[in-house]
Design goal:
Layout lengths: L4 H14 L1 H12 L4 H6 L5 H4 L15 H13 L1 H6 L3 H9 L8 H15 L6 E2 L2 H11 L7 E2 L13 H10 L10 E4 L5 E4 L9 E3 L4
Antiparallel strand pairs: 1-2, 3-4, 4-5
Helix pairs in contact: 2-8, 7-8, 9-10
Length: about 210
């Protein structure tokens, strides 16, 4: 199975206009924090409400126990001196991975790495495959087995305009669209994108895209 050219182009445009700005605003927020400790302290928080001190959980952290998040933050905080010496995304990711505690999975490790690297202006040279991102990549490429990462050049030409960070997001968000009978896209006048899902009772008939 292959995803048609026009379909991929539409998905990329949908991502760029309706979803990417939110990720970019998060990166800008992290870059503006005073130091790495402040970055670690915000882990698991929905940044759209952080400034309002509502402390709402980020979607990725809602299923993680508060005790696990707290313990993870402590471990990462202890490694800040090492993180400050790391000069690549991979080096930071390796350090954060060693901070893993019970209840913390690969996605949480990626999110912490992304926040730290946004603050330090470090970008990945590959796409980390975990959770929904791996599912999306399998469906897009029509393969069953994948490693922990993939190069952007291994993906279709229509996606080469996106960065590695974009693609981690894109492959997860649109994983249900890399199929033979994908849902229908409705792009609203204000760049808000709605999804009308046909033929599946397990999903709501209409839902709004959110960052993965």
């Amino acid at each position: 199975m292959s995803v048609k050219h026009d379909w991929l182009v539409l998905l990329v445009d949908t991502y760029n206009t309706g979803i990417k700005p939110k990720r970019q605003s998060e990166e800008k927020f992290y870059r503006g924090l005073q130091d790495l400790q402040a970055v670690v302290d915000t882990f698991g928080t929905d940044l759209s409400t952080h400034a309002q001190v509502k402390k709402k959980r980020h979607g990725h952290a809602r299923r993680i126990k508060a005790e696990a998040i707290a313990a993870f933050k402590v471990e990462v905080s202890l490694k800040i001196p090492l993180i400050q010496q790391a000069d690549t995304w991979d080096a930071v990711h390796r350090i954060v991975t060693k901070c893993k505690v019970p209840g913390i999975g690969d996605l949480a490790i990626y999110d912490m790495t992304r926040a730290i690297c946004a603050h330090r202006r470090l970008a990945p040279l590959h796409i980390d495959l975990h959770c929904g991102t791996k599912v999306g990549t399998r469906r897009l490429l029509g393969v069953k087995k994948l490693g922990a990462t993939i190069l952007k050049t291994d993906l279709p030409s229509e996606l080469q305009c996106l960065s590695e960070l974009d693609l981690e997001d894109f492959l997860c968000i649109f994983k249900d669209y890399f199929v033979e009978s994908p849902p229908h896209l409705q792009v609203g006048p204000t760049c808000s994108t709605k999804v009308v899902v046909r033929g599946c009772r397990k999903r709501p008939p209409v839902s709004t895209f959110q960052a993965c």
